[in-house]
Amino acid sequence: MKINNQPKAQMHAARDSVDTGASQGARRATEDAPVSARPLSPSIDSEVVAIAKRRRFTNADKRRIVLAAAACTKPGEIGALMRREGSYSSSLATWRRQYAAGELNGTDSKKRGPKADPARAELKQLALVTRERDKLRVQLSNAQLVIEVQKKLPRCWSNSSHSRSSRVLDGWHA
Fold first, then answer.
1. Model-level pTM?
2. Residue pair 88/68 in contact by the 8 Å Cβ criterion
3. Of the chain's two ends, which shows fewer C-beta atoms within 10 Å, N or C?
4. Who's near 79: CB < 8 A, 6+ residues apart?
5. How many other C-beta atoms lie within 10 A of the C-beta of residue 29?
6. Residue 148 lies in a domain
7. In a domain, 66, yes or no
């Protein structure tokens, strides 16, 4: 328990001199605000990145770092390299294993996700070819129908024009 040895008059004066801006409410909002309530100046950048981005190393970067680590001879050089590259020693150990297995050569990365089933790909190709065949059969039957009509058309015209001309001669008008 804290004992206050100040005279009562000084205690009341200190209590009354406390910022009354908070007790005055909205009337004080347009007047001078206490220092703690003032907005920050626009020159201060207070933005914080919400989510940190994870660093991803390409196979070329991994190869370069592994070879640079192999070239390090003095104590502390590998640690300095890892700090400079923003990586960890566990990553370096993994990359050394990958380099020894030959996985860091060639393309940047393997395709992620489920692997394509070759039987399913073959079935898809078969279905595509079957649909195309059926479509071509329909087109062929339509073309054959048109050819048959074209073969019969001159016979129809010749018969109708012959009968019509005979009607005109007889005095019949169509």
1. 0.37
2. no
3. N
4. 89
5. 10
6. yes
7. yes
pLDDT digits (tens, 9 = 90+) for 161-173: 555 555 555 555 5
Q: Hey, how many other C-beta atoms are within 10 angstroms of the C-beta on 56?
A: 8
Note whether 130 and 122 are within 8 A (CB): no
- What are the tokens at 75? 């104590």
- Is residue 112 a part of any domain in this protein? no
Q: What are the C-alpha distances in Å from 151 to residues 48, 139, 146, 148, 155?
A: 82, 18, 9, 5, 8
- Residue position matching structure tokens 């220092």: 35
Sign for the CA dihedral angle at 71, 77, 79, 85 comes to: negative
Phi, psi of 55 (to 5 degrees): -80, 135
Q: Could you give the number of structural domains in the chain? A: 2
**Rounded Cα–Cα distance for residues 165 and 152 (Å):** 20
User: Domain span at residue 96?
Assistant: 59-101
Query: Of the candidates 47, 69, 101, which is a domain's last residue?
Result: 101
In a domain, 161, yes or no: yes
